[in-house]
Amino acid sequence: MIIKEQSKLASSQVDLLGLNNSSTTSLSQDQLALGQSDSGEWWSSYYIGLAEINGHYLEILPKIDDLDFMTLFSYALMYQPSSEYFSSCYSIKWNKEAIACTRLYNILTPLLVIRYLVVLEKLVEKGLKRDYVNKNENLHLKIKGKINPICQFRNNTVKKKDDYFYCNYQNYSADIPVNRLLKKAFDISVNLMGNIRSRCNDVRSKSFISSKLRIQEAFRNINTNIHPYAIKCKKYDKLNVYYPEAIDLAKSIIRHQENSISSNHIEKKVPPFWIDMSRLFEIYVLGLLKSNYPSMILFQQEGSYGTHCDYIHIGEGIILDAKYKPWYSNNKGRIAHSNDLVKDVREISGYARDEKLLAFTRNADIAPKCIIVYPSLEPTAFSDHLETTVKTNPIEGFHDFYGLGISLPRISS
């Protein structure tokens, strides 16, 4: 069964999923956060992915067609506030049966690959872990470690190679099992990445070419002869904190490839998973703001009583909040959803009166301008000053409230 995010389920779909027989009015994230309205209708939320509900599989696709997830994840991951924060954007149930679904495979693949490459590049910058490994080698006119008597007899004595010595010694090397696992997953990632359609003219997508070259150079002398499930322990190098996450992602990528191979390349398989598009949009917007206004953007700044404001432009003293609601893109939509608009304005007005947050604006005695950031189909043109960017898009009926439409990247035709 296939539906889109933020859409109403047909009565036949509700019956098939057995939702009418349930006493609950909402489902968990793992079931793609379906919810029932006050009028009894079932709606999908901001989650996309695949879920099993009462023995039936539900596939929820993005509301916006042809999204370029490679570019979307690239921006989000390059400017992510923390690895833990991005991890809350999605969940993959590897212990569940994988289901044939090429559409979602093309979403899950760039998520895993881009995140892995970002983590791996940070790991490489700190340096690969090294350890002592045993080596057996037939050396010419030199001895290292100990001579292996059995191998020496078979390989040299019998053959009258008196100038060779078969030695067993320890070598301090980066060619250790955990690095072999990372290299194996990296090779798979490069292969998968070549099959991902993306806007070839996007600067962020192109940056991963240079990233790939740096990683390739670091792993140049590492082989891939390793079974992925042989690596169990996560405590590797206290000096390189990226190893645990890189190991988890490497195993996920190898599992993902195994699903692809098992489906004979006809219909790609994915396990049940979900992606929170509202949170992903929030981090994508952070990437755009930071790239256009470097060192000027605070993210998830804590206010009074545990509140958190999405963004503050400290240079211009502007409060911003991301709302993954496409209807903000025109006045007709704003009028049709006026109740939701008023709730959003009240929420952001609270941030603009929060004394802790006002400390980051230019003048704590004057209420700052507020901006609602939303997805749009129109291209986003940032000016040198954020206030100039939004001045032609006021939220009617509210003083110093503006809209900022963010165009999500889409695959070129």
What does this structure look like?
The chain has 4 domains: 2-61, no CATH class; 69-128 and 181-277, no CATH class; 133-173, no CATH class; 293-407, no CATH class. It is built from 13 helices and 17 strands. It has helices at 11-17, 69-78, 83-87, 102-126, 149-157, 177-193, 203-218, 243-262, 277-292, 331-336, 338-351, 355-358, 386-390; strands spanning 2-4, 35-36, 42-43, 47-53, 56-61, 90-92, 99-100, 131-140, 146-147, 164-173, 269-270, 273-276, 297-302, 308-313, 318-322, 370-376, 401-407. Strands 1-5-4-12-6 form a 5-stranded mixed sheet. It has a 5-stranded mixed sheet with strand order 13-14-15-16-17, with helices on both faces. Strands 8-10-9 form a 3-stranded antiparallel sheet. A hairpin with a 5-residue loop joins strand 13 and strand 14. The mean pLDDT is 86.
